[in-house]
Every structure is written in C-alpha cells, then in structure tokens.
Specification:
Length: 758
C-alpha cells in the first residue's frame, strides 16, 4: 500500500513541482512551445487515466485484490501508450501536414563523413570550415581552442534524448562529468560573441532596417515567432555549393585529362537526371529550382517537366510551403493534384501572388513536388523536387552586394566564383562595377586581376563574378586579395557587403589543418558520449570532480562529488554499454535500482519514525521528492537547452503513466501469476488510495488547464514554458500551491482530521 501511495505522490510532484520549475527556469521573454502537441495530449490523458485505473482495480472491481487479468491489462497498457504516442508523433490521426523543420532536415540530409580510420564523424568538414569563417581571424587561438569552440557549438545544437537529459540531471547533482561541453571562461567569452554575431546576422537576414524600427522588431519577434530557414537550406534549394565545396572542387576544364589522372574520373558538378533501368517509368521534376516574380505581376508560373517514358497518364501533387512569405498574406496557397496527359512533357502551373501595395523585403516560399499514393509504379521524382520562389519588391531598383564577406578557395580551383545578390527590389536594368585589389596576394602572379561591369536585367536578382586563380605548384602560405563594388547605375544602391576578401589556401597545408582539427573536434565529442567509455574510464570519471575537468568545475561540483562519492564509485561497477550491446548494462542497472529503492524505502521509514510522520506522508513528500530529483534536473535542463517544451513536459506526463503501467504492471503481473498458481488471491491493500487519487485528479485537471491556457493566450507568451516575467512566476506559484495543497489535504486525511470513507 505504501508503494502505491508513493507512486501517486511522485506523480503529483512531477506534474506540479517540475512544471513550476520549468516554467520559471527560462529567461524572459524567451518561451518554449510544445511541438508535438498530439503526443502531449496522448501522454497527458494516460498520465491521468493511469491513476483512475489504479483506483478502479483496487477499490471498485476487486477491492484490495489484483486479479491476473487486471495485472495483464495494466501491463499491456504500457506498450499501448507507446504505440499510440508513436502514431501521434507520426501524425497518423490527422491529415498529413508538412513539417517545416522536418522538411529542412530532409533537404540538407547528407551521408556522414568518415575519418582516416573509417569511423563516422558527428559533423561534416564544410560545417567546420563555415564555423572557422564565422570565428574570423582576429582571435589568437590555438587549433585545440578552435576545436573546443566548434565542439561546443555541436554540443549545443545536437539532438538529445530524454534519457540524456536524465543522465545530465543526475550528474549535476553528484558533480559528475557533464554531457554538455563546458568551456573555460576565456573561450566561453569568445563563443558568446560568435553566437551573438550569428543571432544578429539571422535577424538582418529576416528584417530590413528600413521596414520597421528596432523596438517594433523586438515586439514582433516576441509575439509572433516566425519560421526562418538557415543559409544552408537556401543553398541546397538553389542547387549551390557551400563555401567549402566551392573551395575544394575544381571548375570544369575544356581540355582532356590522362586516364590515370585523379580528375579524369571526377563527375561533372552540373545537375543531372539519374537514369533508371525501367524504360516505362517517367521522371518528373521542376524545370528550375528557383523562380523570381515581381509583386505587381501577381502570378508566377512553375513548370514541371517529364523525362523518359511519355506514353502514360501521370498524376503529381504540388504543395506550397511558407518561407518568409506567408500564405494568405503574400501569396495564394496551393495544395492540389495535377495530371499530365499521354505524350505531354511539361505542365505549367500558375501560383497567384498578392500585391499589397506596401513596401516590404523580398520574401520567399517553396513549392514541393510529390507523387500521390500508387503513382510510384509509373513515375519517379528527379533531383529538383523543391522550388524556391522569391517575391521581389518591385518598387525599388534594389541594393547590390556580395553574398559573403569572406570567400575561401583552393589554389587549384581554377576560377573563384563570387556571388552578387540584388535585394529589396529588382525594378529595371541596373549595373555595378567591380575591381580586384591586392592584399598579400599579387595580381598576375596569384590571380588574374579584373575590372569590369556587371549588368542586372529587369527582375534579375543574382550574378556570378569569376576570378581566375593561378596555381604555381609551389608551397606557400595562404594569400588574400579583395574584390570591391563601386559606381552602381540605374538607381541601384550598394548594400552592406561591398567588399569581399578572397583567401587562396595552399592545398596541402589546408588538408593537414582541416584533418587535424576535425580529429580534435571528434575527440572532444567522443568525451561527451555515454556509449564510448571503458570500465576504467567509468571509475576515473567517478573518482574525479566533474569527470576530471577541474578547469571548468564549480564549487557545487565539489560539494556534490563529496556527498555522492561512495555511490558514484559503487555504480561505476555497472558494465559499460560497449559490452554485450548494452544488455549487460541494462540488467545490472535494474539490479542496482532495486537495491537502491529498497535502501531509500528503509531510510525514509526510519526518518519518518524519528520525526513522527506516518509512512504515507513520508512516502508522498520526502521519498517522492528524492526519487524525482533526477527528473527535476532533467526537465529543467531540457527546458533551457531544447528549442521546444516537448522534452521537459513530456518527461513528466510520460513518466507518470509509465510509473503505473510498467512500474506497477510488471510486479503485479509476476505476483498475480505466482498467487494464481497457488489458487490464492494477490492482496494489495488500497488504504486511502481513493482520497489520494481524488486530490491528485483535481490538481491534475487544474494544472493541465493552465498549461493549455498558456499555449493560446498571448499574456503568457503563447507557450507552455517561459514567457513574460510576471505571468510565468504567477503560474509557477500556482503550481507550487497546488502541490502544497495536495500534501496538506493528504496529511489532514492521514491524521484523521478529514473523515473519508474508503
């Protein structure tokens, strides 16, 4: 009976106190919304129903007895919850809706790179180079320091499971090694500056200074969060190569290479159609991966082309996806199916653009090409399945600038391609002059000097400047030259980036530096892994403060380490996950958990006797608090570090249902089966369970109502966690009062001050 009351008390603490901490843990005015709301509703329902079911089993159907069929149903509800939640995550119960974040990840999905030993890396070299470019050349850092900074960036952005947040919560309590990379103060300061620079760059990419003042900009960001795409996604959508790829891939060459030359087998960099073996299957794709339309033209025509087999009727589907343009405000949403007749090789579809007669920055949306169900046998999709449409502000000639302020190229590249962009208007024919200037690279020796004019026709928004690079086949240091813009015509103006620095990197030195730094980064990332440790490493981490990283250890780490030293060394006996595929870790961990639970229960009972508390009150207060501390820290860390509230809140609602269906269901099933074989009933005293479940149910309904209201009312920031200062603290205090009320009412009932007939 005591264990059942403990389960209810732990659920109350999880739902009320952990939610209170998570709501107030996020710095104002930041907020976290639940992304997978259907999963939240499923786990919330079962987190509530589990305790109603427990009451039904023990107090109504067969009082104080758990029959075998009841134990079976209780246990089977655990996989049922998992399956229903999984289907909800996959949007099985609703009409299919395109998930923008998932779409972005799909668009930039690339196979993992491997190091020289063949082991997969947790990052790509082009990401490393982009970070170095963002870091700049002003910081006097060693290669090891730069590797640590990049590893910290990866650690901050990588996806983490709820189990990892729980491990991190436990290690915070005990002064153990963090799963997050902690930087020394000097590097942390530099990292914060780089991060702040990235935030400002993202804002500039989404807003133009002429459009609204800074205060209004801030208000809009707080109240109306919008979807913003990374530059990586845009680059993929426009079929462009990232900076690193442009640096290492030579340009097409008109001559012929010997058959034994390493470039003789190089594939061309131009887009191509993959030819499939079945001659009766057609290939569909967009004619172009990007389109531009002047706002006043009020329509843009998208062309879908067919290759291969044409003697069939083909159906395909087009769906528009918001980028910075919004359906209904900037264009008319398209989501329908189209048909190509026999022999038809192209199909033009018109999408209507809304001309609101108001100046605004250039805006974009996407069009996705897909095949309806059953069409895969007659057609396949080509490489251009996503088209970027740019709605161009046509009231201005626009601003002309370089897309990047720094360009890295290898000496053997042949030609350096530098992109010019025309933004915030594309009205009329305009031009701009450009010229090269030496920095430490010498014209005619290291590169071909250039001075010319680039012309943008009406509606044209990008141009490429090609500068020839000389390969002298001599080992030398990196050299740079500048390309600058001047004298725009046709009413156009120069933008912010009127100068770009082109750095010519020595091939061999670059490869050595990149490979060495990539190895250092991978070493830093492996240190954060919980699956790549040996038994000896476990003991070293357990016996040292902060896992041996004393440079970043705080005073709290030393206190936690001193208090938990015995337990850390004891649990280091658990075999590492590298042995037997992790199964040995799993079963030995269960044994240690059972041992620890027994010890905690006995210590709590002794403590209750010493202070004069009944076992039921000790269970729902001190024991529930102790067993839920890892969950508390796990949810708090998830709330602060995750972009959504799913991990923080899901950790609560999910564990509350699992505690009953698995935590009680499995022991009930084993015990009920045993007593059934003896033809005896399995007795479980319900005691005051009905009163405890009633109070918990009221608190559960009130708390869930508050979370739902927070999602839909702007006074709370339209988010479950965080938001404006006063409302978030009011909600947290309300949740704390609910928990205190639960303890108070349970205590009054336990000591007979509230009469309750079970």
């Amino acid at each position: 009976m005591l264990f059942i009351i403990l389960v209810v008390g732990s659920a109350a603490y999880n739902l009320l106190m952990i939610c209170a901490i998570c709501i107030s843990a996020i710095k104002a005015p930041e907020a976290r919304r639940i992304k997978l709301y259907s999963v939240f509703m499923v786990t919330s329902f079962f987190g509530f129903f589990a305790y109603i079911w427990m009451f039904i089993v023990l107090s109504i159907v067969s009082k104080d007895v758990v029959d075998l069929w009841e134990a079976v149903i209780t246990f089977l509800m655990f996989p049922l919850v998992v399956i229903i939640a999984f289907l909800a995550e996959k949007n099985f119960y609703a009409s299919k809706k395109i998930d923008m974040e998932e779409e972005e990840q799909t668009l930039i999905l690339t196979p993992p790179e491997h190091d020289e030993n063949g082991s997969p890396r947790s990052f790509r070299k082009d990401e490393l180079l982009q970070f170095l470019r963002d870091l700049g050349q002003t910081t006097n850092l060693s290669l090891e320091d730069k590797a640590q900074l990049f590893a910290a960036k990866l650690s901050e952005t990588m996806h983490r499971s709820r189990m990892q947040y729980r491990i991190q919560g436990s290690r915070m309590l005990t002064g153990g090694k963090s799963l997050f990379l902690n930087l020394p103060d000097k590097l942390q300061e530099i990292y914060s500056e780089v991060s702040q620079r990235d935030i400002l760059a993202d804002r500039k990419a989404s807003w133009t200074l002429k459009s609204i003042d800074e205060d209004h900009h801030s208000d809009l960001n707080e109240q109306y969060p919008t979807i913003e795409f990374s530059t990586t996604t845009y680059a993929v959508l426009e079929c462009e190569q990232k900076i690193y790829e442009r640096a290492i891939k030579p340009q097409p060459f008109d001559g012929c290479f010997p058959t034994d030359h390493e470039l003789a087998s190089r594939k061309p960099t131009l887009p191509k159609i993959d030819i499939i073996d079945d001659a009766r299957v057609a290939i569909l794709e967009f004619a172009s991966s990007s389109y531009g339309v002047l706002e006043r033209e009020q329509r843009v025509t998208i062309e879908v082309v067919r290759y291969g087999f044409t003697n069939s009727v083909i159906h395909f589907r087009l769906d528009t996806i918001d980028g910075t343009a919004t359906a209904g405000e900037d264009y008319v949403k398209l989501s329908e199916e189209f048909k190509m007749e026999r022999g038809q090789q192209e199909k033009r579809i018109t999408i209507h653009v809304i001309d609101d007669n108001q100046w605004e920055p250039d805006e974009t949306f996407f069009v996705k090409l897909s095949l309806p169900e059953g069409e895969e046998t007659r057609a396949k999709l080509g490489s251009k399945t996503i088209a970027l449409v740019t709605i161009i502000n046509d009231d201005e000639p626009g601003f002309i600038e370089f897309e990047e302020s720094i360009t890295l190229v290898k000496e053997s590249i042949g030609k350096a391609e530098i992109k010019l962009v025309r933004s915030n208007g594309a009205d009329g024919r305009v031009s701009v002059h450009y010229r090269t200037k030496d920095i430490d690279a010498v014209a005619t020796k290291d590169y071909e000097p250039a001075q010319s004019e680039i012309i943008f026709e009406h509606g044209e928004i990008s141009k490429i400047i090609a500068i020839s690079i000389m390969n002298d086949l001599e080992a030398e240091k990196d050299e740079s030259f500048a390309v600058e813009l001047y004298d725009p015509t046709g009413g156009a103006q120069l933008g912010k980036h009127i100068k770009t620095v082109v750095t010519i990197i020595n091939d061999d030195d670059y490869k050595t530096m990149a490979n060495r730094m990539a190895s250092l980064v991978q070493v830093d990332m492996d240190k954060l892994s919980v699956t790549k440790t040996s038994w000896g490493q476990q003991f070293r981490d357990a016996m040292n403060v902060n896992g041996g990283d004393l440079e970043t250890a705080k005073f709290g780490h030393y206190i936690g380490h001193a208090l938990a030293f015995f337990w850390k060394v004891l649990f280091a006996l658990v075999p590492p996950t590298a042995i037997a595929g992790g199964w040995l870790t799993f079963f030995v961990s269960l044994l240690f958990i059972a041992l620890l639970t027994a010890i905690v229960g006995d210590v709590a009972a002794i403590f209750g006797c010493l202070v004069g508390l009944k076992d039921s009150i000790t269970a729902i207060s001190f024991v529930a608090l102790g067993t839920s501390l890892p969950d508390t820290f796990a949810s708090m860390i998830a709330a602060k570090n995750s972009k959504t509230a799913d991990d923080a809140i899901g950790n609560v609602t999910g564990s509350n249902s699992v505690n009953v269906f698995l935590g009680l269901g499995l022991p009930w099933l084993i015990a009920a089966s045993y007593w059934e074989s003896k033809n005896l009933p399995f007795t479980v005293k319900a005691g005051d369970l009905s009163f405890s479940v009633l109070v918990f149910s009221v608190c559960c309904i009130l708390s869930m109502s508050v979370l739902i209201l927070r999602r839909y009312f702007s006074v709370f920031g339209k988010a479950e966690l965080g938001g404006p200062v006063i409302p978030k603290y009011v909600c947290s205090i309300f949740f704390i009062f609910l928990w205190i009320g639960y303890l108070t009412l349970s205590g009054l009932q336990a000591y007979g001050h509230i009469k309750w007939q079970s």
